[in-house]
Amino acid sequence: MKPSLIVHGGAWDIPDEAIGACKAGCRRALEAGWSVLRSGGPALDAVEAAIVVLEDEPVFDAGFGSHLNFDGRVECDAIVMNGTTLRAGAVAALQRVRNPIRAARAVMEHSSHMMLVAEGAERFARDHGIALCDPADLVSDAERTAWQLCREDSHAAEHHRGHEQGTVGAVALDAQGNLFAGTSTGGTCCKLPGRVGDSPLIGCGCYADAAAGGVSCTGYGEAIMKIVMAKTACDLLGSAPISEHHRSGPEHNSSNIHSVKPAEPSANPCGENFRAMLGARKAVHLLAQRTHATGGLILLDRDGNPGLAFNTPRMAYGYVLPDGSFHTSI
Fold first, then answer.
1. Mean model confidence pLDDT for the chain
2. What are the counts of helices (DSSP H) followed by strands (DSSP E) for the chain?
3. What is the domain range of residue 234?
4. pLDDT > 50? residue 302
5. Active site residues
6. Contact 184/100 with Cβ under 8 angstroms?
7. What is the CATH classification number for the domain harbouring 291?
8. 25 and 60 Cβ atoms separated by less than 8 Å
9. Counted domains in the chain
10. Is residue 257 helix, strand or coil?
């Protein structure tokens, strides 16, 4: 089977000055994940490698550079899921782990549980070889400044970048047919301490099923949870092939927030297989229709065809084309 990889750096109102950094971060994530897959390595390693790169990039809301909660501290969430076994590992409210996706993998591989939170998750990570850091090591200067301005001016949105978006994720299919998906986030700016959004919840911010596909979501977490968007998108991958009506152009959501945006047709690597793109668009359409909220997602169907959609002004993403080259866009 031909390997496949897709990544995202969050769906939000990405400012012009951040576009270059977002595209470069997605490309570096693709390079890290694809170096694993092209040498015959496992999809799990590729997902971890790609997300670690995104967690280390302060332009994204995950790991270092995450948004600060109401108390001025970083609290990170992450999940990784195996499409063959439906086994997942998730962590939430981490304050001392630089790369939460590694802690999520440790839970999946070494625990009978599927989610651990806060101090217990950090202790588990440490016991399985993941070094803990000082909480201050996760705070970027930009986020500290944004938090201070928000506290002084009633959480005014102009003081920070994408205060309800910015999650990162990856989905990979390896040469052996193994499918994995992962998601990592720092949550929303000035969130209440202990708040957990959609990202680490199985079926909400992430889902993988080898019989259908793998999904990573981004956007307003409380709304994504309402429609269990990642699992919904997987279920939609079993829908009928896209019609000529859907091929004609972008679909608009009923709440008229923004159009649901697919990848550029000229860059679509799916050829005549539009099932992946349609599944993504339908899921985001449902998010807008039922919750009047914004977000986006990336996915691979069970054959490795990539799909994506978002109804925010922009989303950072990238995927590997059939010839092994990279496509990144905002």
1. 89
2. 9, 14
3. 4-329
4. yes
5. 167
6. yes
7. 3.60.20.30
8. yes
9. 1
10. coil
